[in-house]
Structure formats: C-alpha cells, structure tokens
C-alpha cells in the first residue's frame, strides 16, 4: 500500500492529487482494506476541514461569555450555520438539538443536545485545528503495518474501544477501560497467543504498594475479604504466610516503601478476581494484557481511563469465542465446561492473533462518520489556541 505522507511540502491541490493517485484503481485485499481505506477516508476529511477553514462557510466564534449574551435567535442562527458546515445539520428542517447531539457524539461529548461549555470550546477550536488533529492521526496510521493480518484485535485508547476484525469485516466491537493518565496503557503491536480462563492474579509490586497497602491501612481484613493469599521468598523458596502472623494494625505504613514490602499477593480464581474470568495473554516486557473485570458498571462511564495500565474488556466471553474459533474442539459448550471447573486453565491459540493498541483521536467509523476523541494522554502536538471565555 502506498501511503502519502503529510511531510511533503505541496499545495492542497497537489496533496489531493497524490492521495487519489495512491488509491486509484487499488484492489484492496481483505487484510489491507481497513487500514488503507481508513487512511484514504481520513485524508479526505483532512482536505474537507482544511478547505472549510479557508471558506466563508465558517464564521469565527466569540468567547463563550460573549456568546451567552446573544439573543436566542442569533445563537441558533450561528450554530445552524456552523453545524451545517460540519455536516451535522442535515437540512433546514432538521431540529437544531439533533444536530448538536450528532456533533457531540462525534466528538465524544455527552449528547445532551444543548450547548454547554465543553461543546462550545470544541466548536471554537474551528476547522483549522481539526485539520491539524487529523494530520497527526494520519501520521499515526502510517506506523501501522500495511497488512494487519486476516484476523486481528484493534484497541483505540482515546476512544475506549476494541474491535475484532476478520477478513476486513468488524465481527465484534466493545467498550474498554484503559490506563489512567498517570499510569497510561502503552501503545504496542503484539500477538495474542493464549487465553487464561479462571485466572489468578499475582499483584505487581507497584500496585501492591500504591493501591493495596493504603487499603490495608484502613481495612486490616482487606486481604481476607478479597480472597488474597500472602507469600514471601525465603531461602530461594516461596513460602505461604499466615495473615494472623502479621500485626497489620501496628505497621507504620508511612515508612514502608515499594522495595521494603517483602510479600507477594495472589488473588484466587473466581468472579471476585480483579481479572475476572478471562485473561488474554500476549507476553511483553511491560506486563500488559487484556482481561475481564468484575466491575462491569465502569463500562457505562463516559471517561474510562481508570486502570493501572492493562485493558479491561466489556465482552470477554464473546472475544474468547472469536479467538478460539480456529481451535478444534473448543465450542461455546467447551468454554462453559472449563469455566465451571473454577480452575485456572490456559488455552493456547492454534492460530495466534495480532493485537494493535493504538492512539487515534480522529478516525472514520464503520458508518463513514468522522469521529474525534479526547486526547486523554496529551499526545496531540497541535498549535495551541487561546481558550474561549478565559
């Protein structure tokens, strides 16, 4: 696949010609279709927004405070003009609140149908900055392989989403929970090689020290309550430690640091386990993986940058079934049998599946709609504009 870079010093007209030339008469294979079509469609969106920024169809907005002083009819007329330019206000008879909702959904904002400050600031940024943002994401697409594979999993961190794609067709979509901004999910290309059903959870020392020790300080019975076992290394052996042998209440937690915590914590299998019932393994130096979670309610939140780095998936059972399709004898009934044992079981994939953890804050969805997401990890390098109302 020929990719047109945005580093080329050319006019917009020649850029369009280069993009069209790159894709003219291209017979997309199923394994290339999603990546190549995404690049082409996003290139067209870049051109639309660049041209919109230069046209009279776009009117610069006043500050938010000034806008709030407008008469209602003047507000609505200005909003209708701008949302028509962005393609969200379809016809003159289209209710304005529906156009606002479309715009909000496309920009990962709560779809209230009313102009709040967050929605206004997004409009205030204007098409010029949106074009810059699209250009950034085109560059990110260039770093993906031309051939993503016949089957693959794609995670988009800012969109909090996962897709399983087979032969160029999205077979499964779901929400995900990703790492907090101060514990970000790393971007990577890897391969899912196995699924662990009924996993135990060996707590990384960093999480033990930063997350669990503070809870122990307030709840000395926290480990027992959440089905943890305690281990310690002695004479090159792992030794089980009895909770009652430790005087938790008299530990000076202010003086315990990560290196001085001599214990290893392991949570038993079951619905209570932090990894849930499924763990999707692609061994890597950063100990990142996909997994289930018992905290299903978190998937309904708007902001889902909530984990310590790993990716929690909304539909782990469906994902496991898709990944195991090429394994002989592993039907849905067989997965039920393994789950019902309650025992940790590793299922190796006969056909390992690539996984791409990406960072796209602008992309085209399967309906052909341009979408934007919040730059949750502050990776977008854009020309900064003054904030409206500040």
TrEMBL record:
Pathway in which the depicted protein is active: Cell wall biogenesis; peptidoglycan biosynthesis
Domain of life where this protein originates: Bacteria
InterPro entries reported in the protein's UniProt record: LD-transpeptidase_YkuD-like, LD_TPept_cat_dom, Transpep_catalytic_dom
Keyword Translocase: no
Pfam families listed in its UniProt record: YkuD (PF03734)
Domain L,D-TPase catalytic: 151-338
Keywords: Cell shape, Cell wall biogenesis/degradation, Peptidoglycan synthesis, Signal, Transferase
Active-site residues from the entry: 291, 310
Listed CDD domains: YkuD_like (cd16913)
Signal sequence segment: 1-29
PANTHER family associated with the record: L,D-TRANSPEPTIDASE HI_1667-RELATED (PTHR41533), L,D-TRANSPEPTIDASE YCBB-RELATED (PTHR41533:SF1)
Similarity comment: Belongs to the YkuD family.
This protein's name: L,D-transpeptidase family protein
Species assigned in the record: Zooshikella harenae
